[in-house]
Amino acid sequence: LNFGRKIAEGTPLEVRTDTAVVEAYLGGRTAGAPPRRRVAAGADVLALDDVSAGYGPVDVLHGVSLRVGEGQIVALIGANGAGKTTLLRTVSGLVPSRRGRIRLHGASIERARPDRIVGRGVAHVPEGRQVLARMTVLENLRAGAYARRDREVEDDLASMLERFPVLHERQRQIAGTLSGGEQQMLAIARGLMSRPRLLMLDEPSLGLAPMIVGQIFGIIQELNARGVPILLVEQNAHLALETADWAYVLETGRIVKQGEADRLLGDESVRRAYLG
Questions:
Q1: In a domain, 202, yes or no
Q2: For the chain, what is the domain count?
Q3: How confident is the model at residue 29 (pLDDT cuts 50, 70, 90)?
Q4: Signal sequence span per UniProt (predicted)?
Q5: What is the 3-state secondary structure (H, E, C) of 61-90?
Q6: Residue at 53 is within a domain
Q7: Is 177 among the domain residues?
Q8: Mind giving me the DSSP string for 186-237?
Q9: Rounded to two decimals, what is the model's pTM?
Q10: Which domain holds residue 14?
């Protein structure tokens, strides 16, 4: 529907590519990741070796091994409940690992506290954005630099407001009153205020309009082009594989497939399970 008038009907693919729908909801183009040059893995930024983790007596991750190299975007795809969010929370120290090693630039972090992991350069943008809803945009950004003690925080704050013009316009607005897309931009900018050596994004497209998703993924690619390695968990497997250099498929807490993202995009078993 558009202004109370039906403009299209059919299968999801037919509707998504209908010219009237594209004009009304996708800004005159279909949503997706902008094209980018694929990057081969450099030295390991993040390395998981045989990691198991979970909640209470139940393991959610079972012997997971994974790499994120310098300059890469690495995607982690899988069904709901596969353990993707748990993996990010384990790297962040929010869920304790029970077995295996987690290394950041070669240093073990599997026993480190969450604040120490942030201090070592891991920024985790969680699912659902989780902005500090009662605080202003500026206060949220400053909160992202809580672990820093250097004198360049104000410079980085100015840089974030320049990089995200909508946040500059709304810098004194209460974060909970922002739109979903604006909150996602704020969550990413807040993560960047820690000057991360690794950025982990959990479902950045969740609940956003297709045109906003395109903007968010453009920002993700721009950040990566500036040298930020990214571990991306994304419900839209097609978009994740279009964006990433390398990808892993997680099923019931186990890595069942990995490879170059372009190759997995054309893999028949991946297409059947995740791409429709």
A1: yes
A2: 2
A3: very low
A4: none
A5: EEEEEEEEECCCEEEEECCCCCCHHHHHHH
A6: no
A7: yes
A8: HHHHHHHTT--SEEEEE-TTTT--HHHHHHHHHHHHHHHHTT--EEEE-S-H
A9: 0.83
A10: 1-30
Q: Are residues 89 and 5 in the same domain?
A: no
Please write the tens of the pLDDT for every residue from 237-258. 999 999 999 999 999 999 999 9
**134-184 tens-digit pLDDT:** 999 999 999 999 888 788 899 999 999 998 999 999 999 999 999 999 999
Q: Which amino acid is residue 125, in one-letter code?
A: V
C-alpha closest to that of 243 among 219, 217, 216, 264: 217
Placement of tokens 């571990």 in the chain: 231
Residue written as tokens 């300059």? 71
191 vs 1, 118, 128, 225, CA distance in Å? 37, 10, 14, 17
Cα separation, 276 vs 76, whole angstroms: 17
The answer on 188 and 74 residing in a single domain is yes
